[in-house]
Amino acid sequence: MSRIRNRPLSADDLRAFGEELDAIRAKVQADVGPRDARYIRRVVARVRWTGVAGRALLFLGAFVHVALIPAWIAGTLLLGLSKILENMELGHNVIHGQFDWMNDPKLNGKTYEWDIVATSANWRKTHNFQHHTYTNVRGMDDDIGYGLLRIFPEQRWRPFYLMQPAIAVVFALLFQWGVAIQDLRIGRLFAGKMKPGELRKAFRPVGRKMGKQLLKDYVVFPLLAGPFFLPVLLGNLVANGMRNVWTYTIIFCGHFTADAEVFPKEVIRNESRGHWYLRQLRGSSNITGGKLIDMLSGDLSHQIEHHFYPDLPANRYAEIAVDVKAICARYGQHYNTGSLPRQFGQVIWRILRHALPSRPRVRRAREEAVA
């Protein structure tokens, strides 16, 4: 349960709260331009050249045996960095439509396809629409535990959750695969709510994307190394694992810290703009750490600002955060932020604690407090 006591807001307070936050959006939108275009093009260049350098070093190590180990380590790290930047700083932000105004077909949020096994079309549905519209609303936001984990006591406990500490580790290592199948809702098949033919039809575009990624990383590039294909294949495998674990860590820190809240479906009934902002604030968590964390997280270190303004260029979030934090303080609302070790430590605690059943009285009290 959140340890923070937020000040109750009247209807007038909520209206003013929403208007002040809307004003920030309008101000930034009016200023979007060349500065933001330079930013995203620099990101594209970083992704490209770290990827090229990483793959070149993997090949160097394969053909120059004396350099095998140092070149493999450096190459794998650079390739992993490229994949992290492409996933977090480039793909995620572009798919949100943050740079559609540039009219660059390579940076169009409706057509961009990123370097993971998940299709961007499914991500636009499960993330851009469902998650950002119904953030932390039980039964409407599938990101709450991803159908695998019990993160909050309001989620009904089942014996299956006893295994979740181990499941969470596997999920982190294979995170892109979990994202890929999220919209397939495979559980509906076992519950008798979906026919096998429906699942096969939904899987076709996902299967094509999976095949393309597997072919690229684990067949084409390794085979280019000839008899030394194994170090290159292993480098690609580790780089993908680095990206998976990092993405999992950042996303889970964004919504599952100790002070993050979940909400019943009733909260979205006749939800005002001010209420919507309040729900985004109370369901999100920021990460401190400066420009390096901002870059590596795709600016999801400013998860609160991202949920307020998902279609504004992410490079603006750090400066926006100053005003957002001041507004939250003025209205007596907790602005949840902390270092990466602190926030992720709270996520781990949630995963371990809620693998076990909650006491009924505690669960009822939380549900009443959230409602």
Automatic annotation (TrEMBL):
The keyword Transmembrane helix applies. Residues 71-337 form the Fatty acid desaturase domain. Keywords: Membrane, Transmembrane, Transmembrane helix. GO terms for cellular component: membrane. GO terms for molecular function: oxidoreductase activity, acting on paired donors, with oxidation of a pair of donors resulting in the reduction of molecular oxygen to two molecules of water. It comes from the Bacteria. Signal peptide: none annotated. One of its GO terms (biological process) is lipid metabolic process. InterPro entries: FA_desaturase_dom, Fatty_acid_desaturase. The chain crosses the membrane at residues 56-81, 160-180, 218-239. It holds the Pfam family FA_desaturase. The keyword Transmembrane helix applies. This is Acyl-CoA desaturase. The lineage of its organism: Bacteria, Pseudomonadati, Pseudomonadota, Gammaproteobacteria, Lysobacterales.
